[in-house]
C-alpha cells in the first residue's frame, strides 16, 4: 500500500516537472519569435533607408 502511494506521488511530481518544462519551453519560443520579428523589422527599415538614400543621390 505504501509503495503504491510513493509511486503515485513520484508520478505526480514527474508530471508536474514535465508540465513546468513545457511551459518554460513555450515561453522561451515566444520570446524568440518576438526577437525574430523585431530583427526583421530593423532589417527592413535599414533596407528602406538604403533605398531612399540611393534615390536621393
How many beta-strand runs?
A: 0
Q: What is the gyration radius calculated from CA atoms?
A: 25 Å
- Compute the average pLDDT: 88
End-to-end CA span: 84 Å
* Residues in β-strands, percent: under 5%
Number of alpha- plus pi-helical segments: 1
Helix content: over 70%
What structural class do helix, strand and pairing data support? mainly alpha
| Low-confidence parts | none
Largest sheet: none
What does the overall shape look like? rod-shaped
Biased composition (Basic and acidic residues): 8-50
Region (Disordered): 1-57
What does it look like?
Helices cover 96% and strands 0% of the residues. The protein is built from one helix and no strands. The radius of gyration is 25 Å and the shape is rod-shaped. The mean pLDDT is 88.
